[in-house]
Amino acid sequence: MEDLNFFTLLKNRIYCFLFIERFNKKLQIDFPKNFQRWDLIQHLIDKYDYKNYLEIGCDKDQSFSKISVDTKVGVDPISGGNVRKTSDDFFQDNKQNFDIIFIDGLHHYEQVKKDINNSLKFLNKNGFILVHDCLPRTKAHQSIPRYRGSWNGDVWKAIVELRTKENLNIFTSQIDLGVGVIKKEMNSNILKTNIKNFKDLKFKDYYYNYKNFMNIKSYEDTLKSV
Question: What domains sit in the chain, N to C, each tagged with a CATH number?
Answer without folding.
Answer: 6-225 (3.40.50)
